[in-house]
Amino acid sequence: MDATDLARWQFAITTVYHYLFVPITIGMSLIVAVFHTAWVRTRRPEWLRLAKFFGRLFLINFALGLVTGIVQEFQFGMNWSDYSRFVGDIFGAPLAIEALLAFFLESTFLGLWIFGWGRLPEKLHASTMWIVHIGTVLSAYFILAANSFMQHPVGYTYNEAAGRAELTDFFAVLTNKVQLITFPHVIFAAYMTGAAVIMGVAMYLMRREAKAAAIPDDLARGDAPMYRKAARLGAVVSLVAAVGVIATGDVQGKIMTEVQPMKMAAAEGLYESVPQGLGAPFSVLTIGSLDGSAATPLIEIPGLLSFLATGSFDGAVKGINELKAEYAQTYGASGNPRVADLASAFVPNIPTTYWSFRLMIGLGIAASIIALAVLWTTRNGRTPTGKWLLYAGVAAPLLPVFANSFGWIFTEVGRQPWLVFGLMTTANGVSPSVSMGEVITSMSVFTLLYGALAVVEIKLFLHYVRKGAEPFEEPQDPADRDEDAPLVFAY
Amino acid sequence: MDLATFWFIVLGVLWTGYLVLEGFDFGVGMLLPVLGGKRYAADAVDGEKRRRLLINTIGPVWDGNEVWVLTAGGATFAAFPHWYATLFSGFYLPLLLILVALIVRNLGFEYRHKRPGVRWKAQWDQAIFWGSLVPALLWGVALTNIVRGVPIDENKEFTGNLFTLLNPVGLLGGLVFVALFLTHGAIFIALKTDGKVRYEARLIAQRVGIVAAVLAVVLLGVIGLADGKPASWVTTVVAAVALLGAIAANRAGREGWAFIGTAVTIAMAVATYFIVLFPNVMPSTTNPAYNLTIENASSTDYTLKVMTIVALIFTPIVLIYQGWTYWVFRKRLTTNVIPDDAPLEPASR
């Protein structure tokens, strides 16, 4: 393990961890805003109770997403200083704009939402959560624009004298074709995740309340119908978003095949090219080494890889071996000093790309099946109480969260050995002045701290889930609020 | 003035915004165990209410205040990639400590009231205290070292280590930041609360303010004697006068003026740093030829132009809605508005 590997591990740990909370934040902020607006519009108590209940869970999750996000803003400079020097002219702008446009919106308006109960006029107060949501989506846009540049650099020129890539067209960076498809894919996945959290929590509470009800009349009077409503809303949003994820993912696969063909070949572990007319199969499960010699696919779907890559079931797909030769010709002799270490390694880690690609898809499908099951079992006013709801309630939020993680692991590992595709290898991006000891120190600190915080967060989250929604309380009119009245939602 | 110089000034403004705003957050955090501790609180219940009161004075705004440093970080990356790269890879361990401190501090604000247990709250109180003290100290050490110069080689790489930064002037810089933020925070508490806490905070501002004034004058004097320029002496004098004015206003019970005074002091201290720094962004003590300057560390004109347009449009908008938040939550708070709904439990689960 050398300094590059350590720096990569640290980035992977801090970023995957950060991204556990991000999709939940994006998705939940939308649905909490919907609950809050539904209350303002309909004055039905359950909407206010749901808004406050899920708002609290949202805040517990948001807090960790926020603090782990601070690290993201600085760690490019800490561990990847040569990368920062090389692409700062391009990569820094979306980051700075993200902070200016998105972070200020999110943090300021979240403060207004938390402390605005009984102080802000109701409509304005409900709109603050919408603004928080817009902030999260804007933030995603700019950071994905930065990431898309790494996948498919556009709008730049390579300045040999200055030894860096320089921006020539900012609009091109913001409308990178990889970006235009990655952004909706990521946002749909986030909606799917946030909605699944709402659905899972609501299912658990619906079952608990329904079981506590002795007679059907109790059931109707209790909280079960409220949670049932939330679970169904979560399931619907989750499924609609899943359709969006699939549709955008399909387009994304084709763009990826075009701009990063190696990544598509690595997703399947396809070593030998499959010519036009034959149709490359997609293996669902494989045993063996995946190094091109002894892999034995157990279940194969004929033509599916061709379809994912080209849109036609018998389209030609290039294999790793052919692409390796092509890459060597294109980039090996480019004279760019930042790719000189490539020698022969143009291939990412195949088992990682192979399995992360399958886990992303598989977990996403499993999440959708749960959402379908929830919709089906709650149809026509039914309130199921089966024990499966408990397991499904736990699985519902976790499956899409990890599907998100594996999606990112796939797309980032699949880009290797490049840091910026075609321009700079990962090994050339690390900080030369940072010692192994420093990286080991920071990695240990972050890993231990993040681990401990995960325990705290999950315990707190479950504690508030078990408490359930607070009883309804008619909110005060801000106009005749007693200044000495206790604060609502005070820290 | 070229765009790179403009962005050097913008960064000065961003750091000013950050240190003026989060400065009082840090001060409130550091005063948590003092104003909310045994010395001032009547009993355990009063202590808890006082601590919640203190946290609620910055409750709606601390997060927005902190975004200023993220924006400064992003803007450094965009406008001066070499400055960003050298600084954050060079000052690796202090930055790590700052990040850890900010993480536990922010979670302290978010999580401490979510459980009633005494131990739970006490642990987050510690997190808030240390999470406020450590960044205050280390930003002071880091910024002072940037201005004084650090060993940088011909490849723009920092060649020192953690102990290079812990030199006497650097540490004095850290102490000045701590003392200034304590004063600034105490005056903010006096401005935002009423009743006993308000008067006790003023008393603390009175005492710490004089220490801060003495330390700050020594620090800015040392920096000025080494690399001062006429303009930096002007800002130094304004900073000193503003701080003395703040102390006087605080004594007279004019908390608003006192707060403006400490805010101006911090702004002028940052201005002094940036004026001394100009036209470098990170001078090298190894060889002046290796200095990172506005010119050799900056991005292309095109990037700076894009950034300038975005900043000119959106900074006023940010200032308007952030200012509006302060207006919405302008009322003074007392322990009466802290709800009783969280009875103290001997131990958390």
Which sequence of SSEs, written as H and E, runs from N to C of chain A? Answer: HHHHEEHHHHHEEHHHHEEH
Strand content of chain B: under 5%
Number of strands of chain A: 6
Enumerate the spans of chain A where pLDDT stays under 50 for 5 or more consecutive residues: none
The rounded distance between the terminal residues' Cα atoms of chain A is 45 Å
Q: How much helix is in the residues of chain A?
A: 55-70%
Shape category of chain A: globular
Kindly name the structural category of chain B: mainly alpha
> If strands are numbered along the chain, what order do they take across the biggest sheet of chain A?
1-2
Overall shape of chain B: globular
Provide mean pLDDT of chain B, rounded. 92
| Share of helical residues of chain B | over 70%
| Helix count from the secondary structure assignment of chain B | 13
Most strands sheet of chain B: 2 strands, antiparallel
Compose a concise summary of this entry.
The complex is a heterodimer of chains A (491) and B (349). By secondary structure, chain A is mainly alpha-helical.
Task: Give an overview in words.
- The complex is a heterodimer of chains A (491) and B (349).
- Chain A has 491 residues and is mostly helical.
- In chain A, 69% of the residues lie in helices and 5% in strands.
- Chain A is built from 14 helices and 6 strands.
- In chain A, strands 1-2 form a two-stranded antiparallel sheet. Chain A has a two-stranded antiparallel sheet with strand order 3-4.
- In chain A, a hairpin with an 8-residue loop joins strand 3 (282-287) and strand 4.
- The longest helix of chain A is centred in the N-terminal third of the chain and has 40 residues, at 3-42.
- Chain A starts with a helix and ends in a 24-residue tail after the last helix.
- The model of chain A has no long low-confidence stretch (mean pLDDT 90).
- With 349 residues, chain B is mostly helical.
- Chain B is built from 13 helices and 2 strands; from the N terminus they run αααααααααααββαα.
- A two-stranded antiparallel ribbon of chain B has the order 1-2.
- In chain B, helix 1 (3-35) packs antiparallel against helix 2 (44-58).
- The radius of gyration of chain B is 21 Å and the shape is globular.
- Residues 344-349 of chain B have low confidence and may be disordered.
- At the A-B interface, helix 2, helix 3, strand 2 and helix 14 of A face helix 2, helix 3, helix 4, helix 5 and helix 13 of B.
